Amino acid sequence: MKTAILLGATGLTGGKLLQILLGDGRYDQIKLFSRSSAGFEHPKIREYLGDLTDLERFKEDFTGDEVFCCIGTTASQTPDKEKYRSIDYGIPVKAASLAKHKSIETFIVISSLGANAKSNTFYTRIKGEMEQAVLKIGIAKTCILRPSLIGGERDEKRLGEWLFKKAMKVLDYVLLGPLKKYRSIKSDTIANCMVWLANNESDRHLFESDEIEEIGKK
């Protein structure tokens, strides 16, 4: 039996992942680290609430077999770029550092399609820098997922994202061959992929959206 550490259980994909882990007999304990409660009562769950940009405060409790990092914000939620960086870059990197320190050998994190440390776009550059920093920490099994637009209903309403998702439902049918990685992807597919990667051998670190889709349906 294993203990999973989950960061970001209150988000769309993190919530789906939590449901999967709760129903998976391979896990007898799930440690949730987040700013607010996920709102679940279950004998498997242990919650640790606080500011995750100061993740070091949880280091005594940051023990387990696998870390799943579903942390991410948006420009509308976090317009201040320094704060944005402290979340999208700072939290995953600190989590990976703690995992390494605690000898946790599996670290799975959600990045983004187009992540590139040399990008001129702030969002994709931060994701690319995060990827590089996490890989440099050197956890034996590090898996970085680069999903396209994530489908699903969120608690908050984002008009621009809602309109884009409607358009993507049409475009998904014409995105073929090498363009398949640009298709929208469901949050539960990403969550399924994360659990599959944690429990199966892989000698790769980076997984594009079309590969996540294929693995997530196994």
Nutshell version of this structure?
This protein is of the alpha/beta class and 218 residues long. It has helices at 12-22, 81-101, 122-137, 159-171, 187-198, 209-216; strands at 2-7, 27-34, 45-49, 66-69, 106-110, 141-146, 150-151, 185-186, 206-208.
Descriptive overview:
The chain has 218 residues and is an alpha/beta fold. The protein is built from six helices and nine strands. The chain has helices at residues 12-22, 81-101, 122-137, 159-171, 187-198, 209-216, and strands spanning 2-7, 27-34, 45-49, 66-69, 106-110, 141-146, 150-151, 185-186, 206-208. Strands 3-2-1-4-5-6-9 form a seven-stranded parallel sheet, with helices on both faces. A two-stranded parallel sheet has the order 7-8. Strand 7, helix 4 and strand 8 (185-186) form a beta-alpha-beta unit. The longest helix has 21 residues, at 81-101. The chain is globular. 40% of the residues are buried.
